From TrEMBL:
This is Dehydratase. Residues 17-123 form the MaoC-like domain. InterPro entries: HotDog_dom_sf (IPR029069), MaoC-like_dom (IPR002539), UPF0336/Enoyl-CoA_hydratase (IPR050965). SUPFAM superfamilies: Thioesterase/thiol ester dehydrase-isomerase. It comes from the Bacteria. It comes from Azospirillum oleiclasticum.
């Protein structure tokens, strides 16, 4: 579920956008393992993850990154291209966590007939911030 306005014709520095995901499930983690090819057992095998000292199963970092990418692309809308998306992962996401991604516009400029928008984002659960990052959204000027 996204909240906040989609990127308008001319976003402004300080504009914000939000995406709230349903709680992460172990089934989702198994499906993501299959889709990504990352079958590390810490993502779906509870006893293994506990023996590894993680206190339980943890989500793939790139699943959290996917949530951030969804927040940016949902906001950017059709015709926009998201590039240079990067993040730091701060604490693990676990099954049952509801991830909320909050984004903001940090810079807006025109380059060669294109609108270039620098965005930042933070992802959080009830346990705290799980990731922080940035990206660039590009689209033709209207």
């Amino acid at each position: 579920m996204s909240a906040g306005p989609a990127m308008n014709a001319r976003p402004a520095v300080g504009d914000r956008f939000t995406l709230v995901k349903d709680p992460v499930t172990t089934v989702q983690l198994v499906m993501y393992a299959g889709a990504s090819g990352d079958f590390n057992r810490i993502h779906y095998d509870l006893p293994y993850a506990q023996e590894a000292g993680l206190g339980g199963v943890i989500a793939h970092g790139m699943l959290t990154m996917g949530f951030a990418a969804q927040a940016v692309t949902d906001w950017a809308g059709p015709g926009a291209v998201v590039r240079d998306l990067s993040a730091r992962f701060l604490i693990p996401v676990r099954p049952g966590d509801r991830v909320t991604v909050e984004g903001r516009v940090d810079e807006v400029r025109e380059e060669e007939g294109r609108l270039v928008v620098a965005v930042g984002f933070e992802a959080a659960t009830a346990a705290g911030r799980v990731a922080a990052g940035s990206g660039i959204v590009v689209r033709p000027t209207r």
